[in-house]
Design goal:
Chain B: It is a multi-pass membrane protein. The complex is a heterotrimer. Chain A is about 30% helix and about 25% strand. Chain A is built from 17 helices and 20 strands. Helix content of chain C is about 70%, strand content about 5%. The chains are: A alpha/beta, B mainly alpha, C mainly alpha. Chains B and C meet through helix 3, helix 4, helix 11, helix 13 and helix 14 of B and helix 6, helix 11 and helix 13 of C.
Amino acid sequence: MEYAIQLTNVTKTFGKVIANKGVTLNVRKGEILSLLGENGSGKTTLMNMIAGIYFPDSGEIRVNGTPVEIRSPKDAYDLGIGMIHQHFKLIDVFSAVENIALGLEKKEKFDMKVIRAKAKAICEKYHFDLDLDQKVYEMSVSQKQTLEIVKVLYRGAEILILDEPTAVLTPQETERLFAVIRNMKKDHKSVIIITHKLHEVLAISDRVAILRKGEYVDTVETKDATEGSLTEMMVGKKVELNIERTQPKDTVKRLSVSNLTVYNREGVKVLDDVSFDAYGGEILGIAGISGNGQKELLESIAGLQVTAEGSSIKFYEKGKEDKPLQLIGKTPKKIRDAGVHLAFVPEDRLGMGLVGSMGMTGNMLLKTYGAGRSFLTEMKGPKKMAEKVREELEVVTPSINTPVSRLSGGNVQKVLVGREIAEEPTVLMTAYAVRGLDINTSYTIYNLLDEEKRHGVAVVYVGEDLDVLIDLCDRILVLCDGKANGMVDARTITKEEVGLLMTNLRKAGAQE
Amino acid sequence: MSTLIAWIIRAIPFGTIIMFGSMGETITEKSGNLNLGVPGIMYLGGFAGFASSYYYEKLSSDPKGWICVIIALFAAIAASAFGGLIFSFLTITLRANQNVTGLALTTFGMGVANFFGVFILNGASYTAAPLAYSAFSKKIPFLSSKLGIVSKVVFPYGFLAYAAIIVAIVLHYFLNKTRVGLNLRAVGENPGTADAAGINVTKYKYLATCVGAGLSGIGGLYYVLDYNQGIWATTGQIEALGWLAVALVIFTTWKPLNGIWGAYLFGMLYWLYQFLPNMLGVKVAGYVTDLVQMVPYVVTIIVLVVVSFRKKKENQPPESLGLSYFREER
Amino acid sequence: MSSETKKIKEPFVRIIKRDGASIGNKVLIRALAIVLALVVDAIFIFAVTGLNPISVYGVMFNGTFMTSIRFSWALRDLVTLLCIGIALAPAFKMKFWNIGAEGQVLAGGLATALVMVKCGQSLPTPALLLVMFLASIIAGGIWGLIPAVFKAYWNTNETLFTLMMNYVATSIVACMTNIMRGKASSLGKLNMSTQAGWFPQFFGQRYNINILVVFILMIVMYFYLKYSKQGYEITVVGESENTARYAGINVKWVTIRTMLISGAICGLAGFLVVAGRDQTISTSSAGGQGFTAIIVAWLAKFNTFYMALISFLLVFLSRGAAEIASAYSLNDYAASIIEGVILFFILGSEFFINYKMVFRGSKQKEVQE
């Protein structure tokens, strides 16, 4: 068997974090290999070492049987390796053809006309719809991805690595992408797809390699694999989520969103006439492919988004159920000053929820620092609170004054969730609360959320893992293309049904 | 009319100084490095050019103009590129803050130039390199005499004034039409992307900063050996010119071709106080002339503000201007 | 066939981010940087002048410490530099690159001088000083406010904006001094005969008020940044604007308020310079200190006490260089060179505090923490 890439005992660490530990993995020539693993299992880091972004601490990489050193992306290109990153590596102010011309081999003559002609030929061969003179900042996500693929093909890559290519695509776009990938296979190119979507793995790949917590588990033939067997390898044991779910009781309406519409900076409608209610004592899940308006939805409620006219978000604070407060048009500070107990665990923990350079104490203060008349900040309360969170959630930190940016991802999230819960919220919103966390910490978070629910809090849980959504939540709102595409009962719905709602917009008028 | 001609004749050499300065800084900034050491670099270039030609004239038994030009240019470019190298090493390799390093470089460059300058002056308040001056300010034969008004306005300058225009045009072509220029712009916009495309970001940043500094240094050289008639005097003049060069980069929205007219406009504005009242037949008090000196800076501020209002992508500073790049950072 | 297998090498040196160096390490690295810089400067001094560097450094020491007058001059220069550094601290902490201290100092100084001249005869001393003080902080504040407003509302690049504002201020000062001096060749000391608006002397020391004001300011700013609500807001905005918005902080207002404070303290520095040091105003009143202070504030990482230390080092150098200049008939610009070299070394040394290097083959020996 001829191998395109052989990795032997590859290890990579970042400070004290081990991203990959002794990974040994082979990629055959002319195959489509899926690299499967949970978030944070080290898939992207491993591929970045092949693409020359990172250099391994130890281990050997062979390309076509020869041991190689890949010190830079250029080295990778020279070896015929091209990677399409999740965050596109494109220059915004350049046109498509300029981006293609970027970093081309010296021996190739630099003539824009020739480059354009060659790029055009590639586009025609694979039926890409790409305007070569369009500036990247005017392109849609899928156009940008197309450009990335054309770029790599232009360089004659024999080995293509795609990092979660379907995360941002519509089902139709995904199908088109898969067709392209199959065409590439026909050209005897090796394709590696990084993903955690099982049905895609089964649909497209020849073999599946599985990583777990930075370590290599196994490679199996796709035809011998099932979703169940893959999941088992991915997480280490059969997923019996076993999330404690209590029956909602004494549900009271806490939040009423109606006709919420939001346009993003480019003027694109990202939320389209969304309406729903959230009740105390239940967990409302929000499902959808990432980028379908989840972020904007939560940020609108938190007062961080400009909403379109006609939108309404009513908040029913404890004890003031008869006098709902309109949140639209209020800043986060005004919302808080109005006596609303709204907790929000944002997706970007260190970039939005916490201040990385401050310790736990400083971070406990973040939303309440302004309380009281004093010119100085009050430190005793936050210090006590930090001690309490550290103890109750078992935050591992050298001291409550250690900058939180030095803590591991799980501990960072515990600090954030700990603070938000400590404020005894009426409504608690979380966005991707367990992303990148290990199983144990994830369960800590699930249990915390369920506990909040039992205390009568209205919990809004934006998640990506359907198993969790179905096992944890009481009702699930499915977003698709910025629209509310259905509100379902989590206890009776199946994963497939949710998946369908996420990807297929129902006909207008079918709204319940 | 004659006043206008006199005005233009004054403005173009002035513009030439800052055109060199700003072309150099444009290359540097296109690589994402904001080098605020331009004044220091122009000091280094001006002084090295002056000192080398001064000693050549003094020590050689039969000094020749063209050798003088070569020596002065070589020394000026080498000295100012060395300034760029210090900046590059500190900000690229050692990841020091660019603003702070640039300002320290300005202090250093001014110090070196003036310290040794005083050595050469040896007590006198100024000293001159006459041969270098005559060589640098030599007019183009025929063109400068036979074309009437055109000769008078367009061709009375030394060769560096035309070289500056050529540099601007070449730079425009280089940035927009060549492989290396495209790569350089990519480095300044988004070094991560450039890196992924196989471009050696460190090399580009080093080269752009050193080459840019060398080019800026020619501005200093032109100031001393042509504009200031080969006279080295210990004044703060070059510093102000250096900051004007930085201003001009912003004014041109990082486009070299704009630099040509922009530099002359700055020259016109700078000399406005002397010529405009004359043209209009009014007399203005001395203090007004002081006030007029701020016009180029005010104009630059206005450009900066307008560009930020309009948010047109093509007119913005290079996206990663002022930031260090570290590939394995996470 | 004895084809040698291609040996796989690690890169010669790899750079790894440190998880915070210990205090001892930090001090050691910085001290080493300064010593190295002094060695480089010594080589430079010897190469150029042929003098014994050790004795030259000895002479430098005299520049600050030989007489009490010199020491008082050194203190005066120190507090001027420190005052501007303190002014910049909140702006830098907010990651607002205020390169415009030079102009803000001039604006404050000019306002002071104008009040001195206009109201020198009509107001009693305490009232006069108060008006001068207010005028200086308002003028400096406005000079800081303008770029801040544009930054807050339109995200106009503040580094370039504040830099340009320096020269606008210089031109205005040149213009106003020109008017004030009238036909005289230079402006000279303001209110020479009445000494109205001059700081009174205490305990025979001319600069006691300057020193006292800046000393208080140093302590107040330290606590302001570390313990006040506004200081907290500044830290959050500097760290991440998104976090600030999430926390309900009005980012625009904090930006504007902080620059108002920064500019106002710069203006106050102008007041101290004009009323307490020069008793006059010129385009060189700020004398480049606005730029040097940027380096001071940055190196001290916004800790005002460190700023005092670094300011002292720089002032010591420049006074020392002036001393060398007169002792060996060199010139003052030696100070700029020595200062430049030391700054390069300190700036470079930060790298070794934030990162560590792992050389090829050395990692087995590396001690695991």
